[in-house]
Design goal:
The protein is an alpha+beta fold and 601 residues long. 41% of the residues lie in helices and 15% in strands. Among the domains are: 70 residues, Phosphatidylinositol 3-kinase Catalytic Subunit, Chain A, domain 1 (Ubiquitin-like (UB roll)); 102 residues, Ubiquitin-like (UB roll); 91 residues; 139 residues, Ubiquitin-like (UB roll) (Roll), CATH 3.10.20.90. It contains 13 helices and 18 strands. Strands 13-15-14-18-16-17 form a 6-stranded mixed beta sheet, sandwiched between helices.
Length: 601
Amino acid sequence: MATSIQVLAPNGRRQNVKVTPNTSILQIIEQVCTKQGFPPEEYDLKHQRTILDVNSPVRYSNLPNNAKVELVKTAAPRKETEVNIALQLESNERLQHAFLPSTSLWQILEHWDQQQSVNQDRGKLTQVPDESSVPSLQPVCIYMRQEVIGEKALKRTTLKSLGLTSGRAIIRFLHRAVELPQEVETAKQPTKKRSNESMSSAASSSTPSLPQKEEPTPMDVEPSSRQTVTDSRTESSTRNAPTASVSPSEPMEVGADGEIKLTPQQEEQAMIMGRAIAQSIFQHRQEEEERQQQQQLEQQRQQELRRLREQERQIRQRQQELVSMSARESFTDFKFPEETKGQTLFVNELSSMAGSTEPCDRELIVYNPDIEDRSVDTKEDVPDEFFDVTVSDVRRMYADLQQERQSLEEQPMLTKSQRETHAIKMIRKYPKIVIRIHFPDRLVLQGIFRPLETVKALTEFVQSNLEDKNLNFYLYTTPPKCILKDPKQTLYAAKLIPAANVYFGSETSCAHYLLSSLLGEAVTPTQADVKFALVRSTSQVDEESSEGSTVNESTSQTKRSSAASPPSATSASASDSASTSASSSSSKGTVPKWFKMGGKK
């Protein structure tokens, strides 16, 4: 059975609520909302996925100990309606009536007492039938397993505190001989008061009291005697002294000359109190000195720590100054050698591709794929068996699919440098790419571009060949459909290398989109394919020539460096070149004698 519940409020705070088995869910909601500042009628308690019934007690809510519930907002604010109460008497008679939730149980009993038609056969419910019984009979109301005993408890308990805000309920009423817990508490109060009085009297008796009759006035006693009396009073009133007190049965006597006469027992007690006071004063002074010493040590440690930090900061600042000064001094008188003036000292792949972004000749071609090419003989018809898929064709397609899947699965992860190297190879392999733009009227516009040109250049090329220059259009590739939106994206990044089909799209429909002059110059698809093949072959030749020029340039640089080098270096380079040429000539010569070809079987 739950004895404590943890409630999560909407503001993120958690509140532990101590409950009993008879505590209603409505009481828990009111307690949490009152503390967190929420209206109770707008919230419910939710345990896991279940909204708890506000009218049921914790006993029947199936909540474990230390359960975690959440305060959630209701769909509609909770409204209080009248509750139909059936009051079952000891004679098994039931009295039914509707009451508001704010009505107390005592008011319910008074309501039935005021009904004259009901009171004809029995007495009043609020009156005890037999007052002579010991213990006395008390009115008791029982709701479920919760009992409310006595007039005060009945007046204090309302239907809402029992969790009844709507619906129907049965309350049993009877008279039971029981002793109220309130009477027990009231009976204990005088005893407690008497114990307090006895404790105060005992405390007052522990302090030494001087008889007023024998105590002289301050004017009659000499200064020395007055000092003695004051010291004795101070010592007797000290709280930190041990259990040494002057007994009230042994009063101190004052002589005729004003001196206080103490008995041996009083003198012994005074000495004990004096030692205790002196010891406490000495201990207090020692603690004060230790505290001051600790404060001084802490101050010294803080000062030393600040000094070390300042030194470290100065050293770090000095190191930075020295580093900056050395860097400035090392590059103050730096000059490039005069021998390297006008020479290209650094050549890499990126520098060799500097001209890849410059636009090339577009070699514009327009063709219609529906035009038949008369140069191709189409008289011979292919038999229908040619288009039938055989078992070998299926096996070949299945093998190709397996190989493609395996290549995709076993593809290694590439680093950024490896991806850049692959891009450089592709750009050098295809310095010119062919792009065909397909229009909705079945015409195709073909042009040649550089791989590092941008999408903006492709868009401008299409716009320059349109009949309507102000026509809004867009370019896309498919499948899947991908619109070329970024004008700064390169054609290589858009995956349009080495050749690609791009489609023209527009919200405005026209009979034809291209210039009328281009429509008259339309060629056949075969001619466009021939042009595409020529561009590919030309790009390969350009690649080979660029590689040859790079090799020649490196060779000339080697010759210049060998000419400027001393004779020993020249002879070494000559021997290296000779060995290289010898190895190359031997590799290009005939097959060696020890190599034998395998015979044909």
